[in-house]
Write a structure and sequence with these properties.
Elements (H helix, E strand, L loop, with lengths): L2 E4 L2 E4 L7 H5 L8 E5 L7 H7 L6 E3 H14 L12 E3 L10 H15 L5 E3 H13 L7 E2 L7 H14 L2 E2 L5 E4 H20 L13 H27 L1 H8 L8 H7 L11 E2 L10 H16 L5 E2 L1 H19 L11 H6 L3 H41 L6 H4 L10 E5 L2 E3 L3 E3 L2 H8 L5 E8 L7 E7 L12 E6 L4 E10 L5 H40 L11 H27 L3 H29 L3 H5 L4 E2 L7 H7 E2 L15 H26 L3
Antiparallel strand pairs: 1-2, 3-4, 3-19, 5-6, 7-9, 8-9, 10-11, 12-13, 12-17, 13-20, 14-16, 15-16, 15-18, 17-18
Helix pairs in contact: 3-14, 4-14, 5-14, 6-7, 8-9, 8-11, 8-12, 11-12, 17-19
Amino acid sequence: MKFIKLGKSYQLCIDTPEALKQIVNLDESLWAISSAPTSAYLMDKAFLDYVDGDKNGRIRTDEIKGVVKWCLDTLTDVSCFAEPIPEIQTKLIDDASADGPGLKVTIAYVAEQYKTDGEVTSLDNVRLCMKELRSKPLNGDGVVVPESSQDAEISAYIAAAIKATGGTPDISGAQGVNVPQLEAFRDAIKAFLEWQKNGAVDGPAMPLGVATPKAWDTMKKYEEQIDKFFLVARFRDFDPANSARFISASAAADSAGDALGAAPIAKPDDAGALPLTGSGINPIYRGVINELIAAVIEPVLGKDITALTEADWNKVKSTLAPYGAYLASKQGAIVEGLAHDDLVKWTSEKYHAAIVELAKIDEDIANRAAALNKLEKLILCRMHLIEFVNNYVNLSKLYNPKATALFECGRAVIDGRWFNMAIPVTDTNAHSNVAKGSGIFIIYLDVIPNDKTPTLKVAMPATSGTRGNLSVGKRGVFFDLKGNEHDAVITKIIEAPISLYEAMLAPFKKVGEFLIGKIEGKSANAEKALISTVDATTKNPPANNQNGNSPANMMMGLSLSVAALGSSLAFITKSLGNMDIWTILQGLGIAFLAVLVPIVLVAFIKLGRQDLSSILEGCGWAVNQRMRLTKKLRKQFTAKAKYPCKASGTPCKRFFSNLFYTALAILDIYCLYWFIKVIILGK
C-alpha cells in the first residue's frame, strides 16, 4: 500500500487500477470518509444508486467494498479501469464469476437488438435497450396493465381488478395490478358470490323476502329516534314530575322548528307506546311514522297497528336481525360494485391461467431487466469507480488544484477574490452550527440561477488574505461546473481569522476600535458641554470677571496647562537623556515583542486548528481524517488573480517606484534615529 499526505493526514493513494484491490483490505479507520449522503456527490445518479446497496440515501464503507469486490470478481483484467470509457468488452468478463455468463449473454442480446459487434457494448445501447424494455406493457416490474393482453376479455378482467383493488402504478406511469392484487381480486370474487348465495330470497337471512333490504334500511335509518322515544317513555314512568321537560318542546328554542326538532318523535300514551296516528305525533315526524308503517311495521307486525309498544319494536329488530348478521358477514366487498354476470364469468379458470402466463412473461422480462442493470452497473463502475474512491477513500481530488471534487458545485468571485471551494447545503443555520467548529471564516451564499430554478445555497471557506469587504448582503458572481454565471449574495458569515496577518492585527484592531469609540464619546460630550457653555454665556453674560468661566480665568487655565505640558516634556527629555540610544531602542523592541509574541503564538494555534472536515460534517458526512490547511491549500481555495505578464501599470511593473518607497522608509528610520540621538539625548 502507498499512502500520501493530504491536508496534514495520511491517506491511501489510489492512482492505478491495481490500487483498487487494496481498498477491500483497508481498515475503515484509515478511510478519509466513513459515510456520506448520496445527494452530496454531483455525478451519475445511477452509479450512486448501485453503490448505495440498501437504498437508504447514504454510502458506507462496506457498500464501497462490496462494489469493488464485485468488480474484481467479475472482470479478468482490472487495468480496464485506467480507461474510463462508456463500454465493456466480452473478453474482460470472467466466465468463472457468478454474474459472468449472464453478462455475456446480455451483451449478445444488446448487440442483437441494435445489430452491433457482439463482443462489445456501450452504455448508450444498454440504456436505450432498458428504456425500450420499460416502455412496453410487460416491462418486468411485476405490474400487469390492461394493455398487457391482446384478449379483450382478459384486458377487461385486469381493468376490473384495478378498479376493485386500487391498482399499482406501472414503471411506465400507467395504472396496473401486481400478482398479489390479482389473487386478492380472484379470491374476493369467489367470496362475494358465496356470500350472495347465503342471501337467497327464500333463505333465513331474508325474513321478509325481497322486502327485507328496504325494511332493514328504514329501521336502521330511524332506529336511534325510536329508541330515544322509548327511553323517554321509561323515564316518564320513573319520574313523572320531571319528565315533562323531555316530552314538551323547549321554550328556549329560537324557533318553533328548532323546538320541535329537539322534542321526541311523539308523546307517549299512558301505556308508554308510540302513537302511529292522532295528534300525539310530532308534526315534523309524521312522514317518518308513515315510512316506518309502510316499510317495517306492517310487513313485520301486520296492518291496523295504531300504537307501537316497546315489545313490538323489539320484535321488529329481532325479526330483521338475521339480515343484519348476513350483512355483517359480507366477504369480498371490493367487487360489490361490479356486475353480477361478470363476476360469475370471471370465476372461469381461463382468466387466472391467462394472468399466470402474463406474470411468467413479465418475470422473464424482469430477469432480462436485472441483467441489463448489472451490465449498466459494470460499465458505470469502469467509468466512475476510480474517480469516486478518490473522493471518498481519500480526498485527493479536493486537494488537487487542477481537479474538482465530486461534491463541489462551482466557485465564486466576491470582493476581488476567487473562492474555489463551494459545498451545497440545504439548511444554512443547521450547517453553520456544525461548521463553526472548523475555526474557518465561512461565507454562505444564495445563488440565484438564471434558469429560474430554485435558489442554491452554498458554503465557501475564506482561507487566505483578509476579510476585506466581506459582509452579509454583499453581492458577487457564482460560476457553476458548466461555467454558467449566476448572481449570488452573502446571507451569513462565520467569523474567524483568515490569515496570520489578520490574526496579529485583530487585538490591536479591537483596542483601536475601543479607543476610537472612547475618544469619539468624550469628544461628543465635550462638544455638547462647550456648546451648552457658549449658549449659556451668550444668553446670560457674567456680571463681573469673578465668574469661573470668564475669559481671564480661561486664559489662566490654558497657561497652567501649557506649563504642565512643558514640565512633562522636560521630565521625559531628562529621563531619556540619561539613557543610551541602543537602550531606548532595545526597550522599545522588547515592549513590542512582549505584546506581539503572544499574539503571534495564539494566531499560529488558531490557524493550525482550522479543519475543513467540519464543513463536510455539516452536510451529514462522517469524516475520519483531519483536513488541515497548508499555506499552499489556503491559496488554492481562496486566491487573487494574477495580472497579465505583459500588462503595464500593474504591481509587477512598479519596481522602481517600490525601490523609491523602500529607500524613503530607510531614510525615515535614520531620521528618527538621528532625532533621538541628537535632539533628545544631545549627543
